[in-house]
Amino acid sequence: MNKPTSNPGPRDAPIQCYIKRDRATSIFRLYFGLTPSEDESDKLLLAAKKTRRATSTEFLISLVADDFSRASSTYVGKLRSNFLGTKFTVYDSQPPSDEAFKANHSRSSRRFHTKQVSPRLPACNYNIATITYELNVLRTRGPRRMNCSMTYIPISSIQEGGTAPTPKSFPQENPPLSLPSVKSDTVSKDSLVLKNKSPRWHEQLQCWCLNFKGRVTVASVKNFQLVASVDPSHNVSDAEQNKVILQFGKIGQDMFTMDYRYPLSAYQAFAICLSSFDTKPACE
């Protein structure tokens, strides 16, 4: 079942989670763990509520599953789409600290556990990532193609000896949820960009295939694996470039797995996966 080793390396230990979708309420719940269990009350990491507007779709993200008010101390941020559902922006409600801003995106982690909620300032919108789905103009067969520009995570985070705002090793009981962000509407040339890992066409099955190592069991256009998209000038090893940083896939009618690793946080990974739940007829 692709379980983490007892002493995982700093960059090689994926955090394995799963997402439950409630169609009736349009609520998505992110749980920490390998597989769904009967007692999930203490495993909830984040929850999101999907709302449709005239020109966009929004996912409001909270630390709890019954309060999505922006005025609440449990409100984390939101994901907003454009009209076509081809571009999404991830917003964090936490304003950047002056020290973090001056240090050019250097920051410490926050909210390591759902019960540890610090006093919050009024909710604001700070752009921390942009997710773009490519239009499938020629209607070619294959999975959706996407790119995720992480506004404040530097490419250097995956270079030898590099660091990122997230811890290099994740406590298995309290994975990091979110981080302070820098207010920015543009992506630096040194920001980390994630792209789809290219699937292989399986002649016998007549479908596009990716190796999810048993973590995904149902074929779906929503399934994806993301790896770093890096220019050769950045001197990132092939092994690091081929490493799956985030994978998401279907295991049941309304059940999905989400496995992420350094340098992403749970909030960033969850928001990227939520974008897959919006309808995108022009991309399929």
TrEMBL record:
PROSITE patterns reported in the protein's UniProt record: TUB_1, TUB_2
Pfam families according to UniProt: Tub (PF01167)
Family in the record: Belongs to the TUB family.
Domain Tubby C-terminal: 7-279
PANTHER family: TUBBY-LIKE F-BOX PROTEIN 2, TUBBY-RELATED
Span of the signal peptide: none
The protein's name in its UniProt record: Tubby-like F-box protein
SUPFAM superfamilies found in the cross-reference section: Tubby C-terminal domain-like (SSF54518)
Biased composition range(s): Basic residues: 104-114
The organism's place on the tree of life at top rank: Eukaryota
UniProt region (Disordered), positions on chain: 95-114, 159-183
